[in-house]
Design goal:
This is Cell filamentation protein Fic. GO terms for molecular function: ATP binding. Helices cover about 65% and strands about 0% of the residues. The longest helix has 23 residues. The protein has one domain: Fido-like domain (Fic-like fold, Orthogonal Bundle).
């Protein structure tokens, strides 16, 4: 599954360091589209152009304060992901809580970065997240998996399964989807891949693959979906170099 992707990554690696202005323009494009699509998947109604305007510090009429905060917060969370990668910090629960804290800043301050204390359901999914009293245990199991068995996996498979396992636990009251996609891209960036974007147009396939992973423990469809998006990001980078 990963042969052609690895070959394209090798092509990209051979072109490093990337030209400064090209890299900056790619980063700005990915930051905008990542923020727009990740928020749109969760119901944010700002368009791509409106998201761009909000990132530039301008308020869009007729849109809620929450929708504006979701854009700014997601941008700040991406900057935090980039900082983790640059500093080569080891993965930790503290980072996960910080990401969720950034995502929910000014929206749900009481619950931002704090594991939930009540049961939640995932709309439209057959999977039911674990009760709140099992969250700490399941998060510790996820971290143990990540530090041991996950390190033997291809980075794309590791990133995809981390996303799926985390969002299946659904440890926070809100922001789990955005946090899971940030965690997935954190892993991809650490491995030298460009970030990927789950597009709003692919939301149904994305949700169905996640629900299948949670209810059957078969992650193949979800890993395949993430692999396709990784290849698409590599193609974008290679096309402009």
């Amino acid at each position: 599954m990963f042969t052609s992707i690895d070959e394209k990554k090798m092509q990209l690696d051979l072109k490093r360091p990337l030209p400064k202005h090209t890299l900056n323009s790619l980063r700005e494009k990915m930051l905008l589209e990542w923020t727009y699509h990740s928020n749109a998947i969760e119901g944010n109604t700002l368009t791509m152009n409106e998201t761009k305007v909000v990132l530039e510090g301008i308020t869009v009429g007729g849109k809620t304060m929450r929708e504006h905060l979701e854009v700014i917060n997601h941008r700040d969370a991406i900057l935090y992901v980039e900082d983790i990668v640059q500093k080569n910090e080891p993965f930790s629960e503290w980072q996960i809580k910080n990401l969720n804290r950034l995502v929910l800043k000014g929206i749900h301050d009481d619950y931002a970065g704090v594991y939930r204390d009540q049961q939640v359901l995932i709309a439209g999914a057959q999977h039911t997240p674990p009760p709140h009293f099992r969250i700490q245990e399941e998060m510790e199991e996820m971290m143990n998996w990540f530090n041991c068995d996950a390190q033997k996996l291809h980075p794309i498979e590791r990133a995809a399964k981390l996303h799926a396992i985390f969002v299946g636990i659904h440890p926070f009251i809100d922001g789990n989807g955005r946090t899971s996609r940030l965690l997935m891209n954190l892993e991809l960036l650490k491995a030298g891949f460009p970030p990927i974007i789950i597009k709003i147009q692919n939301r149904l396939a994305y949700y169905e693959a996640l629900d299948k992973a949670h209810t059957t423990k078969n992650y193949d469809d979800f890993i395949h979906l993430i692999a396709l998006e990784t290849e698409a990001s590599l193609d974008l980078y290679l096309s402009v170099l």
